[in-house]
Design a protein that fits this description.
Layout (H helix, E strand, L loop, with lengths): L7 E11 L4 E9 L4 E8 L3 E10 L2 E11 L4 E5 L2 E3 L6 H13 L1 E12 L10 E11 L12 E6 H7 L8 H16 L2
Parallel strand pairs: 4-9
Antiparallel strand pairs: 1-2, 2-3, 4-5, 4-7, 5-6, 5-10, 8-9
Length: 187
């Protein structure tokens, strides 16, 4: 392979803005052909998305959340998700987010896959988990700035509508891809 011709070597890195959940670095890189430029890298802890699956009245449903998203200034419907806290592993984070956002505990958590959310900018990965054998907890334990509505949506409906309207969050589309791959492997 000719990978060497694609690589840009890091010449310097300068810390940029530090924000609550990420930092932005200015990274100067040089190519073997002499080209150089400054690129930006967003550094963050790993992320998790958890796909809670329940069966009600004989129908498989996903437990999802509806919430306002400040970037798009719209309401989205998503799987529970969040950031892995320092010192926490992704499985623990998935269980914690499940407890906090939708008030369920899972007795069977399965790792489905992981991806970089956008390698042009981000340095981290998102880990996707399937949560089954759920037990309802008394209450959500939301962060102070979270306002979340819990919804249970039939799997077939999510498969038909993911990617459109309130379900246009690209990371949730990716999570659903991992869920479908899991089903194909285990059928």
């Amino acid at each position: 392979m000719q990978d060497k011709k694609l690589i840009w070597q890091e010449k310097s890195r300068k810390k940029g803005g530090e924000y609550r959940i990420f930092t932005v670095d200015a990274v100067e890189r040089v190519h073997e052909d002499g080209a150089s430029n400054t690129f930006f890298a967003i550094e963050s802890q790993p992320w998790i998305t958890v796909i809670p699956l329940i069966k009600e009245d004989g129908v498989e449903k996903f437990v999802m959340v509806r919430q306002f998203r400040h970037g798009s200034a719209t309401i989205t419907t998503e799987f529970p998700a969040g950031i892995v806290d320092i010192g926490e592993n992704p499985v623990e984070a998935a269980q914690r987010e499940l407890n906090e956002e939708v008030a369920y505990r899972s007795h069977k958590v399965t790792f489905l896959g992981a991806n970089n959310p956008n390698p042009a900018l981000f340095t981290n990965h998102m880990h996707i988990f399937l949560a089954e054998d759920l037990t309802l907890l008394p209450n959500q334990e939301l962060d102070p700035d979270e306002r979340i509505e819990i919804v249970k949506i039939p799997v077939t409906t999510v498969l038909e509508t993911m990617g459109y309207g309130e379900m246009d969050h690209a990371l949730m589309v990716m999570a659903l891809f991992w869920y479908q791959r899991h089903l194909m492997k285990n059928s």
